[in-house]
């Protein structure tokens, strides 16, 4: 598909940008970091969201280049903040191919060293389905990343065939409650029960719990009451371009 061949060039010519969505600690709302979310401004088709091109890029070897690109942007950002006295983390989404790549941890170690970044400031988000696609290959990669001190988060938790027994065996540090449950929490007691159970489960396994899709004060207040650790969502901010993220940070402090 033509879009895929255009993508490599798009990364080289600045059409592909990383946007940042802030994550805040609960209850005090201190900014702890951001999730890196890729955007493509296509000369013909305009702004493309990841759902429109990441699956295509994932179907090819180009996803390695995408992950490297996003990680590189993230590490430059973290270094910039550190130099300015700010200690904030960035979360990068991994694709199933990264988890199947036995060289990926070396590549990450090299990049962290090159930018002189403490590994705990880099988070990788992975879905359970990306692990389950080929656990024999994914687990050694995850174990090495975890041993290096990089933070691992299970994204979209609660969807797919999440097995609680399985979560216990994954070398991860964090769960992100899927936004569908957080969005539904205000009107659906079932969703509220799911969110509450994930917070409890996460804490009983010693994991940090992040809620995504936090859109209003009511959701935030409920999450505080449940003891959720970190919130991400439109209530705090939409994903922002680098420039707008910096302006947003300035305006808060
Ligand atoms: O805002 P949003 O439309 O950005 O993101 C949609 C989906 O695209 C998210 O579920 C996210 O996991 C995925 N995504 C965003 N950025 C990246 C990226 O850099 N790499 C991968 N593999 N997926 C991404
Ligand atoms: O990687 P992941 O699936 O978690 O990507 C997060 C997705 O959720 C992105 O598409 C992002 O734009 C979107 N998102 C972030 N915050 C909110 C929110 O508060 N509400 C909704 N509906 N979507 C959100
Ligand atoms: Mn994510
Ligand atoms: Na998610």
TrEMBL record:
Keywords: Membrane, Transmembrane, Transmembrane helix. It comes from the Bacteria. Residues 1-253 form the EAL domain. This is Bifunctional diguanylate cyclase/phosphodiesterase. The chain holds residues 607 to 859 of 875 of the full protein.
